[in-house]
Amino acid sequence: MGFSAATRHLRLTVTALNSGCWASVRAFEVYDRPLFDPSLDLALGRTATSSSNESSALGPGNAVDGNPASLWSSAFSDPQWLQVDLGSVQSIGRVVLSWENA
After folding, report:
1. Dmax of the chain from CA atoms?
2. Staple 50 to which of 16, 39, 60, 81, CB 3.0 to 4.6 Å?
3. Where's the F5/8 type C domain (predicted)?
4. Across residues 12-26, what is the average pLDDT?
5. What are phi and psi of 19, to 5 degrees?
């Protein structure tokens, strides 16, 4: 199912039910239409920020670097967030999240 929105910043907020957790995301991809071409990821290489990082090696830039082996992982607490700055207002039609298999 597609949607349509226009924004410069997208934020993913993660909260566990009744306990803390790590939020770990391998990819945070953004496309301008519901059907997408991975080479047109609007978030690829953009500035990403986060509420916290589990370590300096697991920073928010890993979620937008195009490398499926890297990831962002938060500190163990709730809530946590990951945000990408698209550089300017963009039309958004699809967001794809790839979570760590943990």
Report:
1. 39
2. 60
3. 35-102
4. 79
5. -165, 165
Instruction: Give the mean pLDDT of the chain.
Output: 89
Between 17 and 55, name the one with better pLDDT: 55
Coil vs helix vs strand at 38: helix
Which structure tokens are listed for 84? 């990408």
Determine the structural domain holding residue 11 and report its residue range. 5-99
**What is the Cα–Cα distance from 24 to 17, expressed in whole angstroms?**
16
Q: Is residue 60 scored above 70 in pLDDT?
A: yes
Stretch 89-99: mean pLDDT, rounded?
92
How far apart (Å, rounded) are the C-alpha atoms in residues 49 and 47? 7
Find tokens 């163990």 and name the residue: 76
